[in-house]
Amino acid sequence: MQAIIKKIYLAALLFLLGSCASKLEVNPISDPSVDNFYRNQQDFEQAINGAYNGLSAYPLRHFFLSEVRSDNMYVPGEGGTYDWNPVNNFTLNASNTLMSGAWSDCYTTIMRCNAVLDNINEQKVPDEAIRNQFTGEARFIRALMYFDLVRFFGAVPEIEHLVSATEAQGIGRTPVPEIYDLIIQDLQAAAQLLPPSYAGAAKGRATSYAARGILARVYLTRSGPVLLEKGPVLNSNEYTNARDLLQEIISSGQYAFINDYAQLFSYDNENNSESVFEVQFKSGGTGTGTVMPAEMLPGSYMRAAKIPVAGGNDFKFVSGDLLDSYPAEDKRLAFNILQGFVDENGNFVNQNYFKKFLDPKRYGVDLRDWGINQPVLRYTDVLLMYAETLLHTGGSQAIVDSLVNKVRGRAGLPPLSGVTIDQLMEERRLEFAAEGLRWHDLVRTGRVIAVMNAWIVQEDEKQVMKPMQAEYILYPIPQTEINIKPGLYEQNAGYN
């Protein structure tokens, strides 16, 4: 827990922006002492904004650890070896920097939330509504981070309060069910403490319905079949719990389906009627933009398109299988995927890339400065998760069909009848491509081993991928964390 040890009781570091990016502004902190910092409502507002800034790493984390890991991308390693190639190939070791980055980012953000929760009280924030909001936001963000940790690493240290460096070195891994207990408690509390919506500049903050939606996703994840002992899926059969939460969101009247798919991701339509929760980004050279469009697309394309900021690595390809899964008439295909391009030298590059979040005219000052929010939970996801719960609980097939066909109709596809779980998962794959959901969907539904191994046989023309096995549902505990106190952590099965 190297990242935690370095940050205990140092508020200046807890709220240090670094490469974080969010529209929620954090002012400089003049006094680095935690005891001295939390004095009034303004201090807590700054602290909560610091926690939101910790979410800036969320989209890229799920791009690499969910999209690249899944059958949506084939990134075997060309033009050199990068940290994401072993993620794709199932050849990871514990020294991979994506592992340490995910662990450190999550715990840094958790500690920001803990600092708020440990210090907030009626004397420092007398306004009960504001105090409840700050508390709810901190618990929502902390739950989101622990949900990432438990899905990626399984059992992890549960740290619910600020602790000293010495104490941190003695905290071992908490079993998965106990981590889930904290996640559920935090999200249930957030659902009660947070407002249903915000107006004006506060739009984009976590709401009570965002908490309900993420909690429903937690219940769905816990409910699936167990493929790996100590993994994130518990066979808990909590589909009814998820269904009821999703029904509350649908019945709330807070959200409305948008009939134009492209408008969901428009730079001019952020925090729209389908946005349940999205990470906020803003370009302008202030350190509040996102790298996502440039990370997905190659520099050679950016130069050919005369976008005057550098692009990412040229070897992050959309899989042929995903491309072929889109019907020719599917409107999402052309919007989501760049199917080859002519480079700056006039040569056709016959490769496919995600371009879902790109507006070529809306670049910022550099490749990390795009001003497009990144979705965490969309209303479409709420509808499709609700359909999924109905299939698991003996609900109305007619409602399932209508919800799936609502999404298909927007994409220009004909309706289906008698929609099955397999068809629903395929619809989710096409709808949420590049949004970081695919690997999680495969894991929680118990499809990951069968789907990935069939896909590897078909897709792995370089023959560099290892067969998918249950141990690879989790990632390795970062070696940097294991080295801090030998024997404190046992490495996840399947990794050296």
Automatic annotation (TrEMBL):
Q: What range does the record give for the signal peptide?
A: 1-24
Q: Domain RagB/SusD, which positions?
A: 353-495
Q: Does the keyword Transcription regulation apply?
A: no
Q: Which UniProt keywords apply?
A: Cell outer membrane, Membrane, Signal
What's this protein's name?
SusD-like starch-binding protein associating with outer membrane
Q: What's a Pfam family in this record?
A: SusD_RagB
The protein's location, in the record's own words, is:
Cell outer membrane
Cellular component GO terms, alphabetically?
Answer: cell outer membrane
